[in-house]
UniProtKB/TrEMBL annotation:
Alphabetized Pfam families for the sequence: GHMP_kinases_C (PF08544)
Keywords: ATP-binding, Nucleotide-binding
Domain of life: Eukaryota
InterPro entries: GHMP_kinase_C_dom, GHMP_kinase_C_sf
Name of the protein this chain belongs to: GHMP kinase C-terminal domain-containing protein
Sequence ranges assigned to domain GHMP kinase C-terminal in this UniProt record: 21-71
A Gene Ontology molecular function term of the record: ATP binding
Length: 82
C-alpha cells in the first residue's frame, strides 16, 4: 500500500511536476532493494525525502544495495552526501 500511493503522483507528474528525478530514482532503487516491503517519497518540491519499510534482518543488505545503486544512478549528487 505504501508504494501504491505514489502511482497517482506518477500519473500526474507531467501536469504537476511531482517529484525530482534524483528522488524518483531513489524510490525506484528502494523498491528493488532486498527486504524492502514498500517505499514512497514526500515533499519532492521542497527537497523531499524517501521512506521505506524494510525487514530488520535485511536492513544492512538493503542499505548497501541502495547506496551502491544510487551512486551509479546519481554519481554527482551522491558525492555531496558523503
Amino acid at each position: 500500500m505504501l508504494s501504491q500511493t505514489l502511482h497517482s503522483l506518477f500519473l500526474k507528474r507531467e501536469g504537476f511536476g511531482e517529484g525530482a528525478e534524483p528522488l524518483i530514482q531513489l524510490y525506484k532503487i528502494l523498491l528493488k532493494a532486498p527486504g524492502v516491503y514498500g517505499a514512497r517519497f514526500s515533499g519532492a518540491g521542497f527537497r523531499g525525502c524517501c521512506v521505506a519499510f524494510v525487514d530488520a534482518e535485511k536492513a544492512e543488505e538493503a542499505t548497501s544495495y541502495v547506496k551502491d545503486e544510487y551512486e551509479k544512478a546519481q554519481p554527482e549528487f551522491a558525492k555531496k552526501l558523503r
